[in-house]
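Homework help board

Subject: predicted structure for assignment chain

Our instructor gave us this sequence and asked us to write out the predicted structure in token form, then describe one feature. I got the tokens but I'm not sure how to describe them. Can anyone check?
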Amino acid sequence: MSTTFERLFSGSILRTISLIITIIISFFMMPFIIHSIGDKWYGLWVLVGSLMGYYMVVDFGLLAATQRYLARYLHDIDDLNKVINTSFGVLCLLSLVAASLIAVFMYLAPYLVSDASVVSTMRWLILILGAKTVITLPLMVFNGMLSAKLRFDIASYIEIIKNILRSILIVIYLVFDYGIILLDLINFVSEICAFIAISVCAYKIYPEANYGRKYFDKQFAKELFKFGKFSFLIETSNLLKHKIDDFVIAKILGLSFVTTYAIAFSLFNYAGQLVSNLLGGVMTVFSQNEKQGSAVLKRNFLLFAEVCIVLVTFLSVFMLLVGEEFIILWMGEKYQKSFDILIVFIATMLVGGAARATTPLFYATAKHKKIAYWNIYEGILNLCFSIYLTLSYGLIGVALGTFFSSILFRILEVNYACSIVNLSKWNFWVMVMKHWTFGSSMLCINYLVFSLFEINTFVEILFICFLSSIIYSIVISRYILSVELKNVLFKNLTGKLPHKVLICFFNVLPARN
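My token output:
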């Protein structure tokens, strides 16, 4: 348990550092890029990026299935070779499907935007990003190999180096202003280099693995598809929930509005990534201890769910507290309306935070069939809501469409997960409401205190967040966290942090085994 926790902890810290580097780069680069190429062209770049998200569903859910089976068969060489080679072979075939989609999307380009002048550039962007997906799709197996052994540290180091390389190239782009197509080529080069590095590292940490056509198993390929088809539905529905909004905006309101929406979505997305990175490896842990019985699954699910809720609520409080001032200082008063969109995203994130621990549980226990259909229904509902509300309320209607469709299905997912692990739904939602109530109280107190001061610089925002987060963390650790979570954190952080610090935060001694 300690070794697993240490790998997850160190990997999560490195993944978080990598994400922070990405956020810092975005913090400096995004305003310059938008002001350099303009709202319309940046909106087009975002739109093509969203379109490329549909490439990721051509794996038909095999990546999630591969990671699950790799985690199960780490100590069985024959099965391990079968999983690696079969997955790689099938993904190579599916990359051909991805290649055919390039022609389809290039044909559809004129129908996705209302401005005919951008179609030619849009097709070039589709070609470049599509080629990247075709090349990297089979290599994603190696990323799953790292995850199966909880080597998130390696992936994090590669991600950090990739971000540094990309930032250097973007600086060159900003200096010489080569155009939006070169911006796409920068992403292409950096992603290809990162996947090559991941593949080499995975090859080295699996010296026991063998590669070749003789390890390809047709029967196992069918099993992968059987498991993965519902993952495919979930991924497709996620695109309907999160990527379709850009197309609705571009077609109804115009590309410039995509940029305003993208500013709010980027903050929302980075917050979600931060939580995911801190909790990296959850599905792998569930897969490894699934055979230990429902009691272990129930305990882990409840612990991970509480951590998710704590992190999401914490981030939501500070995004609401200083989000408007941050956007104005970061992007300019022209984009102040992005904060209205961000408020809706934060509400969506809070509801989703309660359900974050359900996804790895469903995958690890192969209970994701029903969820796949629910997500499809949610995606369709989101599309309908977004179109209707955009026509009625403009840009904020798109975000409201996502929010309204999310509430119902997140509640359904949580209740279903509770039934899987025999957990009282009432107890779960009481725990959620406890953290939401505490977060709301802290937000009100902080808002009343800091509304007395005028915020004019990023330094002042950082000071407010730092001071408030210390108080927030101490209070929640001492009085709000469950005893079970306190004991787990205290036990596993002992030796990594000074004992006095742990006592200050948790005010509890570790439970006896």
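Reply (TA_rk): Your tokens look well-formed. For the description, you could write something like this. Residues 2-52 form the longest helix (51 residues). That's the kind of observation they're looking for.
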